[in-house]
Amino acid sequence: MAQNFPLVPKPLGDASTDPLKRVSLIPRMPEQNVPENVGERRPLAPTTREDKPLEGRHHPAPKTTPLEHKMTDPEAEKLTSVVQKSVHPHELEDGLTKQSLTPKSMDQRLPMDASGRLGLGKKSPFHRRGRPMFAFSDDRVMLERVLKTHSPDMLSFDVKSLLSIVHDIFKSPVPSIDVVSASKDYADHTSFEAFAELIDQISCEIECKCLHGGESHGLMSSGLHLDSRNTTAFSVLSLVSKYRWDAKVVLILAALAVKYGVFLLLAETYATNQLTKSMAMIKHLPAIFSREATALNQRLDKTRVLMQDMVDLATTIIKIYELPTQFITEEFTNHVPTAVYWIVRSVLVCTSHISSRVNGFRQDKGIMSFMEVSEIHENSERLRKINGYLTEQLNKCLEKIKDRITEDEYQELIRTFTTIIHVDVVSPLRRLFRPIDYLYHGAAHLKRRVGIDALSQKHVLLMISDLENLERELYILEQLYTDAWEQSFEFVWVPIQDFWTETEKTKYETLHSSMTWYVLGEPWMLPRSALRFVKESWGFKTKPILVALDSKGQVTSTNAFPMIWIWQTFAYPFTSTRELDLWAEQEWNLEFLIDGTDPHSLNQMADGRYICLYGGEDMQWIRNFTNLWRGVAKAADIQLEMVYVGKRNPKNGLQPIIDRIRQEQISHTLVDLFQIWFFWTRIESMWESKQRVLKHKNNTREDKDNVLMEITSLLGYGGEGGGWGLVSRASELMVRAKGNVFEIALTEFDQWNGEIPSKGFLRALYDHLMAPRPPHHCTRFMLPESAGIIPNSVECTECRRTMDKFYLFQCCLE
Q: For residues 308 and 207, what is the distance between their CA atoms, to the nearest angstrom?
């Protein structure tokens, strides 16, 4: 049901805050007097002799008012051009000498833009001495008069459908005789019989004034005198006083559409229909259609530009009144009446041009005069500027509404996944994915579309990621998906993008076509609230995360990837309790460190060999380090296997080192860059999982975790790119050190060789490495940013001092 929106003009003191009210929007009629309480009008200061006032007239001295000071504000200067006004010749009597508006040369052309409209902001004959020839009068009086015609009731109708019909008529060109126009069917409910009589009244009111407007001051433009248009505009507005502003505009445009439609019908059928031909003869149209067809089309083309501008502004007004009532603020109510007034004035201009053709009054061979062109241009420019301002305010309002909706939906998602108890996982997933209600399942030709209900009573792992660098995660998940089939949990890929292009949509189709698990359909439909929730509540940034939900929709882990990388399917059901239990059962040894990453090393350990893992990027250091180890292994009489594990975040620059090691048969290496990535990803996952466990246990800084210290050391080694080494055997002690420290210990083998029989090889090496040494640079390492788990302080694994904290942003560096 329609609502009334009272429109109360602001007092004059608020003019500075209203950009559209700082300039006049309507020419003042000669007989109009400005009420004293509205404000003083300052005459234009003469700048040249030609601009001096007529002699004999009394002109009060200019006064500096508060309003004038406000008009010097830069913002006021910027917004003064929001609506420009035409100075018509009869208005030049108001304090200025008469000047000819006829251009010096009739060959002068107005600037056009690409669409055929007269260009905005360009020098044209409408300008004189650098300023537009527009009247500066107080439109507060006009606004008050417009508001007096507005007394809406609760009556409402489908304004959008009626405007659509009007727009279709305006877009119709003048048809050729042999052209068969395609018809357009309208919905049955689009019926406006109740308004037919009113539209006819409006049409008659406009038509009568256009044909009998009379002349004043010796000027007549397109059949309707300029002063008469102002009076006619208020007369038309009075006919639609009980309707809302959007309804007023559409009804008045409908009256123009009827007039224009009749003209088009005459043009289309006068040569083939006897009745139409008779009517056309009376109106003297055959001569116009035959001899002036080109000029007529040019005239109507310019008129249709103004029609389109009216439709655009009317569409904006309709959108404004589709807003919730509380959002229709003074930014709209103070300017919509002005917009409606100028649409009515533009309707009168169009009607005058059409009437002059239909009724055969013009004998100028259809050629538009300069004044007619300028009149259409000025009205189009004014409507576009008003529409631009209202559209800007509308977009700001819509953005506020969208932000409020996003906030409400975001809070609802928080409640959905934290406080509300569900009986099935489907309910919260529907809320998260809304409005998307289906998934894809299966690969290639087996892929089919299924509902979200297919996940009912299942444990669900949501893999949330973007579209980049998924190959490694997908490879591992494909192996786990088969093993986990009987454990009643399912993978669902949820791709997240802030903006989706056609290229990204194509990439999405390519990626999910090979996936055997579930994939969210049309992920670009996800609302902003869902994207915000995934990022802020679940910690998604760019690195993929795996959110675990139990069969009732309860979040058991905001990122189960670390648990899966460490323990694979043994991590099921991916709860915090399960994570605590796994760490409580787990021993820190070499077998656990390389589990799942290098089967060759595991086989060597099974044969009782010592395994030395090492990394670095200096080939000469690698040769020296491996040669030292061979000498020590021979002297200590131990079987040793050396394995090159590279560094964290391996790039292509690491592949040549692997190739050289294999060519020179220096040592064994991990199979490829993928295996190297997975080895270090597991260590990062151990660090993240340990941090989460310690946070869950509320450990204090004094409660040290030795396993975490070892993990941190390895992360430091792998991040620096320098040489390092770690040696152990099966479940025995692991001994690790930086490359230079390890080299010194190996060259000093004779100093600790005697301890091997009593302590064992690993313990003797460890004690020698831990012996006091001269001060040296300890270590540095970069922590992975996952789920926001970054500790406030980290202790150095070499000297036990608190490390300094820095921020590093790194991209695509070797």
A: 21
The structural architecture, per CATH, of the domain 601-769 is: 3-Layer(aba) Sandwich (3.40)
Low-confidence ranges of the chain (pLDDT < 50): 1-137, 176-182, 188-190, 213-226, 358-366, 700-702, 787, 812-814
Pairing of strands 555-557, 518-520: unpaired
* Neighbouring-strand partners of residue 520: 439
Separation CA 669–CA 640 (nearest Å): 14
CA distance 339 to 82: 12
> Secondary structure of the chain: what % helix, strand, coil (to 5)?
50, 10, 40
Task: Decide: residue 700, CB within 10 A, 0-12 exposed, 13-18 middle, 19+ buried.
Answer: exposed
Classified by CATH at the fold level, domain 426-585 comes out as Glutaredoxin (3.40.30)
> What is the model's pTM?
0.64
Residue with tokens 């048969």: 665
Instruction: Give the separation between CA 436 and CA 451, rounded to whole angstroms.
Output: 10
DSSP-derived pairing of the beta strands 459-465 and 489-495: parallel
Q: Which of 670, 632, 714 is nearest to 624 (CA)?
A: 632
> Letter for the amino acid at 725?
G
CA distance 5 to 26: 24
Same fold, 426-585 and 601-769: yes
Tell me how many degrees the CA angle 306-309-312 measures, rounded to the nearest 5.
155
pLDDT at 10: 40
- Alpha helices by DSSP H, listed for 149-195, are 159-171
With contact defined as beta carbons under 8 Å apart, do 152 and 251 qualify? Answer: no
Kindly state the tokens that stand for 50. Answer: 């030609």
Question: Among positive and negative, which fits the CA dihedral 681, 684, 686, 691?
Answer: negative
User: What is the DSSP track for 330-371?
Assistant: HHHHTTHHHHHHHHHHHHHHHHHHHHHHHTT---STTPPPHH
Query: Read out DSSP for 499-529?
Result: S--HHHHHHHHHHHHT--SEEES-GGG--HH
Token couple for 328: 């229709």
Three-state DSSP at 680 gives helix
Give the torsion sign (CA, 236, 242, 244, 246).
Answer: negative
Distance CA 780, CA 803 (A): 8
pLDDT (0 to 100) of residue 220: 40
Could you tell me the sign of the dihedral formed by the alpha carbons of 586, 592, 597, 602, in that order?
negative
Where are any strands of DSSP class E within 383-532? 438-441, 448-451, 459-465, 489-495, 518-520
Phi-psi region of 431 (alpha: psi -120 to 50; beta: other; left: phi over 0): alpha
- What separation, in Å, do the N-terminal and C-terminal C-alpha atoms of the chain show? 66
For the chain, domain boundaries: 12-100+124-181+191-398, 426-585, 601-769
Q: How many helices (H) and strands (E) does the chain have?
A: 29, 14
Q: At what angle do helices 336-358 and 245-269 cross, to 10 degrees?
A: 20
Beta-carbon contacts of residue 374 (< 8 Å; ≥ 6 apart): 86, 101, 110, 125, 126
In three-state secondary structure terms, 490 is strand
The confidence score (pLDDT) of residue 16 equals 41
The crossing angle, in degrees rounded to 10, of helices 245-269 and 293-320 is: 160
DSSP string, 180-243: -PPP----TT---GGGHHHHHHHHHHHHHHHHH---BTTB-STTS-HHHHHHHHHHHHHHTTTS
Tokens representing 40 are 């003083």
Tokens of 486: 């009987």
CA distance 245 to 671: 74
**545-549 β-sheet, strand order:** 448-451, 438-441, 518-520, 489-495, 459-465, 545-549, 555-557
pLDDT (0 to 100) of residue 357 = 52
Of 614, 590, 583, nearest to 733 (Cα)?
590
Distance CA 81, CA 121 (A): 10
CA distances from 438 to 453, 522, 566 (A): 9, 9, 32
**Which pLDDT belongs to residue 523?**
95
- The one-letter amino acid code at 613 reads L
Q: What is the pLDDT of residue 49?
A: 38
